[in-house]
Amino acid sequence: MSTHAKRERLLLADLLETAGPEAPTLCEGWTTRDLAAHVVVRERRPDAAGGMLVKQLASRLERVMAEFTAKPYEELIQLIRTGPPRFSPFSLKQVDELSNIVEFYVHTEDVRRAQPDWTPRELDPVFQDALWSRLERSARLMGRGVPTGLVLRRPDGQTAVAHRGTPVVTVTGEPSELVLFAYGRQGAAKVELDGDENAIAKLRETKQLGI
Question: What confidence tens digit (pLDDT) does each residue in 52-72 have?
Fold first, then answer.
C-alpha cells in the first residue's frame, strides 16, 4: 500500500477502535460500526459494493452490509488494518493510491469531526497536493448536479471548475477541506463561499456534488 493511503487507513482504524462501535459519524444515519462495515464491504465484496453506484444491486449491498455490520466490531477493525485480500484490485499499489487516498481521508474525518472537541489536522503539503490532484480529476463529474456555477479554489489561487454556469459560487480552502466540501461534508469543511447569496444558499442545500 502507498504511503498516504496506508497512513489514512491505519489512522481510520485507530480512530474507529478508540471511538467504539456506537459513536456518531458525519455519514448521516451511520455509527462507527456502520462506517467500518462499509469500508470492509467496499474492499472485500466487489459483488455487492457495486450497489453503491448501481441501483439494481442496491438490495444485494443492503444484505451484505447487514451481514458485515453484525460481525464483531474488533474483527471489522482488523480487516481494515490488514487491507484488502491479494485478489482484490485494491491490493495493487497504484489502485490503492488512486482509489483510497480520498476514501480513507474522508472517512477518517467522518469519525474525527463528528466529535464535539475535534480540531483540524495539520497536513503536509505533499498530501495536500495529492488530494488536490484527485479533486481536479473528479471535479467535473462531482459537480454535474450542482444548481449553480461552481469553482473550487486553493489559497494559492489554483482553481478547478466543477460546474459551468451562472451565477458562480467560488469555494476557497485547502485541498483537504475542499474534498470534504465536495463529498457532502459542507457543515464540517473549513471553507469560504463567495458569490450570489441565493446561489450560495442553493449550494449549501446540495448534500453531495453529483456523487
Answer: 666 666 787 889 889 999 999
Question: Which among 86, 112, 138 is the end of a domain?
Answer: 112
Q: Do 22 and 64 fall within a single domain?
A: yes
Mean pLDDT to the nearest integer, 110-131: 94
Residue 97 binned pLDDT confidence (cut-offs 50, 70, 90): confident
Please identify which residue in the block is written with the cell numbers 495536500: 128
Distance CA 147, CA 163 (A): 9
Provide the whole-model pTM.
Answer: 0.89
Q: What is the mean pLDDT of residues 38-65?
A: 77
Clarify whether residues 102 and 142 are in a common domain.
no
**Is the previous residue joined to 167 through a cis bond, with omega within 30 degrees of 0?**
yes
Residue 209 lies in a domain: no
Phi, psi dihedral angles at 151 (to 5 degrees) = -125, 130
Torsion of CA 134, 52, 71, 63, to 10 degrees: -170
How far the first Cα of the chain sits from its last, in Å, is 26
Q: Which residue has the cell 450497489?
A: 51
Residue 203 and residue 148 in contact, taking contact as beta carbons nearer than 8 Å: yes
Cell of 51: 450497489
